[in-house]
Amino acid sequence: MWELLMLLVLSLTYFFWPKLKSSDVKYPQSLPSLPLVGSLPFLPRHGEQHVNFFKLQEKYGPIYSFRLGTKTTVMVGHHQLAKEVLIKKGKEFSGRPQLVTLDILSNNQKGIAFANHRAWQLHRKLVQATFALFKDGSQRLEKTICQEISLMCDSLTTLDGQSINMFDLIFLMMANVICTICFNLSYKLGDPEPEIMQKFTKGILDSLGQETIVNIFPVLKVFPNKTLEKLKKSVNIRNELLIKILEKYKENYTGDSTTSMMDILIQAKTNYANSNSTLLSDEYILATMGDIFGAGVETTTSVILWIIAYLLHHPQLKKRIQEEIDQNVGFSRTPNIRDRNHLLLLEATIREVLRIQPLAPLLIPHQAMVDSSISKFAIDKGTDVIINLWALHHNDKEWAQPDQFIPERFLDPTRSHLINPSLSYLPFGAGPRSCVGEMLARQEMFLTMAWLLQKFDLDVPDDGKLPSLEGSVKVVSLPSAFKVKVQIRQAWKEAHAEGSL
Ligand code: STR
Known about the structure:
Shape: globular
Structural class: alpha+beta
Bound molecules: progesterone
């Protein structure tokens, strides 16, 4: 109410006229636009944003723009244009827009995901250095992941035959992998910390998912706003927990070895003492930790639930993946990362889930750092550029029956190797802003599903209720809650009963 009132007052005092553009420069076609409110009245209000923006391509083509307040946003929905933005001109478009909500989350553009230049570059490098620690041939990443999956499988064994929502167990597992990488720390089922983590993550996602007009008219943030309050509260709870972990880590820190992201960040702070020290203050470290935690837990938890949801809809496919596991791995050992070369149907299924249900359907918005162009269109410095990944993944010229779930499209006709059926596929983005955790995520998805399907049958509960395949997008595409009937596989029981192991 306050917001609307203020809007009215503002519209009487201010007039934001669309920018006058010189006639010889060609800009992407724009949706209609009015003073002050811009294209807001012309944007569809119902349904999923990414689907609406995709539909607008029918009228406006694969690149078009709209105005909100004083800002111009360009929407890109074709892979060639998307790659020009993300890769070819990746540096020019590597900025991030400043939004009131994201400023709260990132403590004014600190961290990685929503940070702008200097902070982002340094912290991205340090996170990459952390992942390199786990890539050193010692298979540390694989061991960490497998240890957590093994604990999850133990918990599932005690629930044999029951229909459960697997969210809590998967969330705990993913949180533990990330906490091991960041702090050499993990939690047990029932510990208070994972519960706190679930709560603040939900609070952050719920409030980010809410359209809030302060992102368009930042002056309105001086008025009471429930969404912003909820976001601030959740971010504070997160920071309190992370500060506690950080302090404890520092107490025990000796500097003798480098095994976690905290070690890397503390060492960088010492090494760069003069030049970059403000960029490595506790506030910056906290923001990076928050990003890595949020990105590492929420995305992989959702994607595993999506994979399971699709398998419940396609029980024959699940059976075929299990046969593939039985033939290539058997029951005498657990799956490992080298099995990725053999469990092709499982790998194809993961790729297809990432296609049909991209985790970040609009990626994270980019911003032009300099005057630039996309194809023949001029893009002014400061313009926001959004890549509609959903449009890329659902383009019917690139994908046969794009709305159908067909994992086999990622296999050659003889089903003996994986293929890239289309260039219109960027589940982890691309270029300088691409996902830093891709390798971790791919290992987590593969190993979790291989272990689960080796030992368990995942079926629709006795009430016959199938999971919904329509998620809700709150930055990340989240599946609705659903139950799975978890049963230890007969074949697994028999193999173990024979004492053949
Ligand atoms: C999830 C909730 C949270 O507690 C913190 C974050 C910050 C990083 C975000 C993450 C979020 C959602 C998924 C993001 C990630 C950065 C990269 C990742 C947006 C909001 C993706 O692009 C999928």
